[in-house]
Amino acid sequence: MAKIHFEPKGIESEVPEGTNLLEAAHDADVPINATCGGAGVCGTCQLKVLSGTVDEEPIQHHLRHPKSEGTVLACRAKVKGGAEILVLDEGLTSVVGVKKRELSEMLFTSVRDALEPGDFSPPTRKLHMELAPPSLDDPTGDADRILRELRNKRGLANVVIDFDILPALSRTVREAGWEVTVTVLSKGNHLRLINVEPGDTTSCCQYGIAVDVGTTTVVAQLINLVTGEILEEASDYNDQVRSGEDVISRIVYAGKGDGLGRLHEQVADTIDRLMQHVLDEAGVEAAYVSAVVAAGNTTMTHLLLGLPPRYIREAPYVPTIAFPPWLRASRIGLKGLPNAYVYCAGSLASYVGGDITAGVLASDLASGEELTLYIDVGTNGEMVMGNADWMVACSCSAGPAFEGGGIRHGMRAVPGAIDAADIDPVSLEPRLGTVAGAAPRGICGSGLIELVAEMFTANILEPNGKLNRTVSSNRIRKAEHGYEYVVVWAADSGVGEDIVVNETDIDNLMRAKAAIFAAITLLAESVGVQMSDIARVQIAGGFGAKLNVGKAVTIGLLPDLPQSTFSYVGNGSLTGASLILCSARKLERSVELVQKMSYIDLSSNPDFMGRYVSALFLPHTDMSLFPSVEAELSSQIRTAAGGETS
Ligand code: FES
């Protein structure tokens, strides 16, 4: 065995000789980013060996984050004897923290308002009953006695009892003097008895939790299942971010050692933490939560259920299950909810999951006649095109740039995040907006899009994403890993250091936007429509209403369509999950939607890479696709030329 001492937190761990250093760190709960899941390509897992030695494997790839002097890649190093290790950068994990969302920011504060009249029908209900005690004349078993009562007095036949409630049942009914409240879960045509409480608790509300299980961010919303009222909402980074930045990295990580167990535990812990937070904030006891609906991409759903995601990544890309059954929360590691059942929204394919099903359910794409494009921009870019008659869907990997990940000063849209920017084309000085008007601490996804668009139109940035070396400004400088633009000087920042956008950040953003734009063009082509045929573009995802559409068009993320074409649908995945949680009709409808959608697999599409490469420019190599951007640039050149000659 070898002893490892992790600084600066002073965590001690003992592992067998030869253990991979990244696994050793994660086993010891030492947060280290490993955005490629340990594949040895990202360079985010760098550590410094202060004393002792480790065996390093040669680095096979050009790292996306260049290796600094005197560091080792944790995923490429094996423990050899004792060692003292310094963790250099906790990256995303250093800004983990629950973020509350105010009800005033929500599209609606009661789920009833988003449902048709009569559609409010949560999956669980409570029934109070006074049972006749058993006797020698009536020695019917305790559970059978309850089922008989449900059948004879409530007309509920074919109720199945959950085995998990049996061990405590006999004691509960006796201590309660045979007066109990039972909770029944409707699962389509089947009913399941999931809880028995002493006394009459029907006046104690039932609660449900809708969860958006994002690759980078997880959001939980507490809902009163009697009134439909939304009580609390909170989000946090998915603890899995330290084990891979995107779904492919997570699948790679899941295939190594106990990677699957660790990823399962990380997402379950994240959800547990968020649920506890919303319950505490609302003053609700966890015992009164009876149902949870989770919507996530197919990989996230597998990892939450503890299912190996391996075959999602191997042709022909098949998930283990598209429509998981209702499961007891404790069965999938959600330890904080003793009496709840969980439903995961169904998936269309390995890369179009329950989050998109929920999002389409929440939007009106499938009920209108107009050609509509629904885009969910996050770590993955997923999109659905169609109308009430037909729908096609596809997805691409975008990386975490839109959620502030993989960016030198990236952060979520919490107070202090730069979320808006204008750059004076003459002085090159930025004018910034931050979330809550706080001193700037970093840059969130929408802020990065605005900064890059402004840098481009101010001629600080070349179309190939490199800083313009010919521009003279003290804000443009060469740093250790290339050129960067200083957005905020240390003296004005809330973190005591300069906040910058560097060429690696821009490269990450350009790769993300290129993947999404390439996917949109292929989707349109596959159904024989032109971009100009699209009547509506509905934008869902992390930055939702924060996204400046004009600037997103400037960088070539969104198609160049009239501004009125675009609308925001907020977190479609979460909204859809809340609808499924509150309406049996919506749950059925979500299944119908999946059955109606067709899937286009971009990974096997020979045209995707070519389109992606063409889109790796600002805004695109084919400027005819972006006439409004071309016109704006031409007018600026004319203005500049006029200025020079005047
Ligand atoms: S290089 Fe080690 S996790 Fe990516």
Q: Your description of this structure?
A:
By secondary structure, the protein is α/β, with parallel strands linked by helices. The protein contains 14 helices and 28 strands. The strands form six sheets. It has a seven-stranded mixed beta sheet, sandwiched between helices. It has a six-stranded mixed beta sheet with strand order 27-26-17-18-19-28. A hairpin with a 2-residue loop joins β9 and β10. It is globular, with a radius of gyration of 27 Å. Bound molecules: FE2/S2 (inorganic) cluster. FE2/S2 (inorganic) cluster is lined by residues 34-36, 38-45, 73, 75.
Amino-to-carboxy terminus distance: 77 Å
- Taking all Cα atoms into account, the compactness measure Rg is 27 Å
Biggest sheet overview: 7 strands, mixed
Rounded mean pLDDT score: 90
Uncertain runs are: 90-96
| Number of helical stretches of at least 4 residues | 14
What is the quaternary state of this protein?
single chain
Strand content: 25-35%
Report the structural category: alpha/beta
Q: Quick one: how many beta strands?
A: 28
Strand order of the largest sheet: 6-13-12-11-14-16-15
**Shape label:** globular
Instruction: List bound small molecules.
Output: FE2/S2 (inorganic) cluster
Helical fraction equals 25-40%
Quick recap:
The chain has 646 residues and is α/β, with parallel strands linked by helices. α4 crosses α5 (259-282) and α5 packs across α6. FE2/S2 (inorganic) cluster (FES) is lined by residues 34-36, 38-45, 73, 75.
